[in-house]
Specification:
single chain; six-stranded mixed beta sheet
């Protein structure tokens, strides 16, 4: 069991009330699970922990069919377990997606059996977590029939871990949990993290930050460990990565590394990293051979190239397809994937336009094992952005959608901001990539190798996230990567029931209501709700603040002038296929929430209901504040529904969120107010 210093999040296995315990114990005390692989070990361990906690006594494990009992649980593949083969139709199981699973009840030689089966060991892990969820949420196990399979193939967490300083870029849940200086020695917390990820269906983790060298910008702390991310592929460091990787692999989570495109020079001693130079390709081949020899489950690499100072193919006048494909060839013999990020800076002043200009001409030219990893919006994880045009433009390329689970621009670990509803909006967006009705969810699901990727929000903090309610974001990320059409409110409900098992149904409903109100609230008070961006403070420190209101810092992003507000992004709107382009191009039909993203409008321009732009912005800021006040008030009534520590911690966060929402409202209103009233000049 994790100690008091580590919260159990939704894997909380508090003892169940006696009234329901008897039957559960009869059904699940005897467990028959083979010991065939490390994943089977993980299954047994989770059941020992889970059932041990829920029942107050550990289950009894069998290595062979328990013929002397009249009820048991059997977990395994039909090919490996006669009981399972007798209870289910093997064809149904082989037809399941690799990561799918099946829970069913059956009778076997007079005994009642609850079967958890799957085509792969990973599926068995998912099925086991599902069984434990049924018990945690006190559902009947009589005559169950559950078949579940992921709709998206690659469901990855990107851990923006910075080995050289023991921290996580944009991580607000405390210091890094990875102790690179102590590895290959392992910590219990690594296993707990793997359990949390596997329990929501994550099947891959990139272990280090996309920025792979130690930045020399002002404000940098002294390093506590000399390793830079770029060097994790060096022979000297692979054993550390291998140790960490072994923990995640045991839970069916494939390990990946972020690499530096110039590694042949930085880590090796070549004089170039030109992707068309055969020595460069040979260098990568040799590196990957070495990595895979020690990390057989190695999944591949993530690359941030030609962006924010990171090297890339442009340094050699090569295209991003040439860069990505060179790595893809070197990885192909190892069944590895190159996740190539589309977050690229180049000649164009507007980053939104840049991505389309860089990548559209390359559509269809990427190798099969390259996945283009695209942020959900064209700018940068703002509280709300239109969905990136690349999802419409790239019709012949494998794609992944990159989301931030961490709350870089949505209040970090202080504000409550449940991202589920934002992701729902993103996945529901009709890309028109294949004519009408091509929602992003369907595109990612229907694609061989399609992916959903999330930048993690965990750290060393006791809560993992710096804010207990932010656990809902990691939970929802996993669930929506599994099924991008899943309903974020239902997910919040499942999360809350598992996280606060002693809360009454009314209490759970309040928690869900708070979560569901939180993203619209943040959008309102941090942006005014009409599509403005980057109104937060940046600063010159290495980890820009991105938290406090400071609209004066980046006028080019939100376009506030004495004439009006917003940015004319017609060029970007034109990248979308029709009819999306027409909708965004015309201020009269542009959805209100993106009006000022696409257009510079006079303050007194009227909206559909006759109100002016300025009035609406002011009102929305006020509405956001009121929503947070309501959330705080609603939380006050939840005392008694959970332990004092989590209750108080969250109450303190909400009190601070109210203070901050007030600041945001006042700062934004007076900022554009001064321009609009003529007291501030451009
Ligand atoms: C921005 C972050 C920065 C990341 C960058 C990226 O502020 O820390 O390095 O995105 O995604 O949002 O590469």
């Amino acid at each position: 069991m994790p100690g008091a210093s580590s919260d159990e999040c939704w894997l909380r296995y508090d003892r169940l009330p006696d009234a329901i315990l008897r039957q559960y114990r009869q059904q699940c005390h005897h467990i028959y699970v083979a010991e065939r692989s490390p994943q089977h070990g993980a299954v047994r361990e989770e059941l020992r922990r889970g059932l041990g906690g829920l029942f107050g006594e550990p289950p009894h494990f069998w290595q062979h069919p328990p013929r002397s009992v009249d009820r048991f649980v059997a977990i395994g593949h039909p090919d490996h377990m006669e009981v399972v083969a007798d209870c289910v139709d093997r064809v149904d199981i082989t037809r399941l997606d690799d990561d799918g699973y099946h829970l069913t009840t059956a009778t076997w030689q007079g005994a009642e059996v609850l079967v958890v089966t799957a085509p792969t060991d990973r599926g068995l892990i998912y099925g086991t977590f599902r069984l434990l969820e049924l018990l945690q949420t006190r559902q009947s196990l009589d005559s169950i029939q559950i078949i579940d399979e992921p709709r998206v193939e690659d469901r990855l967490i990107n851990q923006w871990d910075e080995p050289f300083r023991g921290s996580v870029e944009r991580g607000y849940g405390g210091e890094s949990i990875f102790r690179w200086d102590e590895l290959p020695n392992l910590r219990e917390r690594y296993t707990d993290y793997a359990r949390l990820l596997a329990s929501v269906g994550i099947n891959g983790i990139v272990l280090n930050d996309v920025n792979t060298t130690r930045p020399g910008r002002p404000g940098d702390l002294d390093h506590i460990c000399a390793i830079e991310g770029a060097h994790l592929i060096a022979d000297a460091q692979i054993p550390k990565v291998a140790a960490l990787a072994s923990v995640f692999s045991r839970y069916g989570i494939r390990p990946y590394l972020s690499i530096n495109f110039a590694a042949p020079m930085l880590v090796g001693d070549l004089e170039t990293a030109d992707p068309c130079d055969p020595d460069v390709e040979a260098w990568w081949e040799e590196r990957f051979d070495s990595v895979v020899e020690q990390i057989p489950a190695f999944g591949g690499v993530l690359v941030k190239a030609d962006s924010e100072g990171e090297p890339g193919p442009f340094d050699y006048d090569r295209s991003h397809a040439e860069g990505a494909n060179m790595l893809a060839r070197a990885l192909a013999p190892h069944d590895g994937t190159v996740f190539w990020r589309a977050f690229v800076y180049h000649d164009h002043a507007d980053r939104a336009v840049q991505a389309g200009e860089t990548f559209e001409p390359l559509d269809g030219r990427f190798a099969d094992n390259v996945t283009l990893q695209i942020k959900n919006g064209p700018i940068d994880f703002q509280p709300r952005e239109p969905v990136s045009s690349l999802f419409s433009l790239m019709t012949d390329t494998t794609l992944a959608c990159e989301l931030q689970v961490t709350q870089e621009y949505t209040g970090q670990s202080t504000h409550i901001c449940y991202h589920g509803p934002m992701w729902e909006e993103v996945f529901a967006f009709d890309t028109y990539a294949d004519g009408p009705t091509s929602p992003l969810s369907g595109r990612l699901a229907g694609m061989d190798g399609g992916g959903i990727v999330g930048v993690s929000n965990i750290g060393e903090d006791r809560s993992w996230f710096g804010n207990y309610l932010a656990g809902a974001n990691l939970y929802a990320f996993g669930r929506m990567a599994w099924n991008p059409e899943a309903d974020p409110s239902a997910i919040a409900q499942r999360w809350a029931r598992r996280t606060f098992p002693n809360a009454r149904p009314d209490g759970i409903s309040s928690i869900v209501d708070i979560l569901m109100a939180s993203w619209p609230a943040v959008v309102d008070y941090e942006t005014g709700g009409l599509g403005l961006l980057h109104l937060m403070y940046n600063g010159s420190a290495r980890l820009e603040n991105h938290y406090d209101p400071a609209p004066e810092e980046w006028p080019e992003y939100h376009g506030v002038t004495s004439e009006g507000i917003g940015v004319d992004r017609t060029a970007y709107a034109n990248q979308y296929p029709e009819p999306i382009a027409a909708r965004y191009r015309d201020p009269q039909c542009c959805p209100e929430e993106f009006l000022l993203f696409f257009h510079h409008r006079p303050y007194d321009a009227t909206l559909a209901d006759g109100e002016t732009v300025r009035e609406r912005l002011d009102e929305n800021c006020q509405r956001g504040l009121e929503r947070v006040q309501w959330m705080r008030h609603e939380w006050e009534d939840l005392a008694g529904e959970m332990d004092e520590h989590r209750y108080r911690h969250t109450a303190d966060r909400l009190a601070e969120q109210v203070t901050q929402a007030n600041r945001w409202r006042d700062t934004l209103r007076s900022y554009w107010g001064e321009f609009a009233d003529g007291s501030s000049v451009d």
